[in-house]
Amino acid sequence: MTDSPEQVPHDASEPGAPLRADRRRRRSIAVGTVPSTPVRTGFAVTIGVVFAAGLTMAFASMSTVLMSITLALFLALGMDPAVRALARRGVARAWGIAIVALGFLVLVAATAAIVIPAVVEQVVELVESAPATIAAIQQSEWFRSLDDRTVVDLTRSVDAAWASLTSFSSFVVIAGGVAEAGAGVVGAISNGIIVVVLTLYFVAALPAMKTAAAELLPAYRRPGFLTLTDEITASVGGVVSGGITLAAVNAAVVFLLQLVVGSPVAALLAIAAFFITLVPLIGSVLFLVIGTIASLFIGPAAAIVFGVGYLLYIQFESYWLTPRIMGRAVAVPAVLVIIGAMVGATLFGLLGALVAIPVTASVLIILRRVVVPAQDARVTPEAG
C-alpha cells in the first residue's frame, strides 16, 4: 500500500526541496502578519495615531507651563547648595529654606526695583536721542570715509530709512507692536510670579520629592537611588548656581565697560549680557561680538576699548574665576557643553540651552556611577 502524496516525506537532498521549504516559511510568515480582524486592527491603529497627535498638541499648548515648571525646578536646584551649606553650619533645614527664600525674594525685588526704572529711562533716552545720534554718526569721520569708499549713498539710505521709520504707517505698526509687547510684559510678569512661587515650593519639597521617587522602586534599590539622586541634585545645583553667579559677574563687568565708553544703554546691555552669558563658553564669545558692535555706534575707539577689555575678562573668567566658582560641580567637557547648548537652543530656545548643561552633567554622572561600573563587572561573556 502506497502512501498518499501528502504523507510522503520530503528528502532534504531532493532537488528543489530547500526552495519549497523557503516558500512555505515565507507563506507562513505572511499569513501570521495579516491580522485576523483587519477592520478592528485598523480602527485601533487610527485611535492610537489620533491619541498620539492629541497628546503632542496638548504638550505643545502647555509648553509655557512646562517651561515655567522646568525653570522653577532648576532655580530650586540652584538654591539647594545654599540650603545645604547652612545645614552644614548647624542651621535647621526649615530655617535654612526660610533664609534662602527670603534672600531670593529680596534679590528679585531689588533687581526689579533697580533694573526696571533704569531700562525704562534708557529706552526713553534712546528714542529721544535717536535723531541726534544718527546725525552725529553721519558727521563722523569713519562714516564719511566709509560713504566715500562704497558705491551706495549711505547718507541718503540712512535718511530714507529714518523717514520710513517715522512715517504714519510705521507708527501704526510700532503702536501695534508696543501693545503686543505690553501684553507680553504682563504675561511675563505673571509667569515670573508663578516661577517664584514654584521655586520656593520646590526648594522646600526637594527631599520629599526624592523620597517619593525612591518609593516607586524596590526596597533594595532605594539606598543606591537616593545616593545617586543626591549626587545629581548637588552637581546640578552647583552648575546652576555657579552659572548664575558667573553671569551676574559678567553683567557687572559689561555695565562698567559700557559706562567707561560712554554708552547710553549700559543697563540694557548688562541685562542682555546676563541672559546670554548664562550659556557657558558660547555666551561670552557671542556677547563679545554684540557688545563690540553696540559700542561701534559710539565710535571706533569705544568699540576697541570694549572689545579688548571684555576679551581680557573672558580670559580671566575662563582660567581663574570659573574653576573657583563652579567648585565641585561635575566637569563637563567643552565639546559636550557646545553640543548640548546647540541642541537645547534648537529645541527650546534660550531655556533649552540653559537646561542642556545641567542635563548633560546629570547624564555624565549616571554613566560614571551606573553604566561604567556595570560594564566593568562583566568580565566574562554571557552564556547563550
UniProtKB/TrEMBL annotation:
Topology with respect to the bilayer: Multi-pass membrane protein
Pfam families membership: AI-2E_transport (PF01594)
Coiled-coil residue windows: none
Disordered, as annotated region: 1-23
Record keywords, A-Z: Cell membrane, Membrane, Transmembrane, Transmembrane helix, Transport
InterPro entries reported in the protein's UniProt record: AI-2E-like
Superkingdom: Bacteria
The protein's name in its UniProt record: AI-2E family transporter
Compartment(s): Cell membrane
Record has Ubl conjugation as a keyword: no
Keyword Iron (UniProt): no
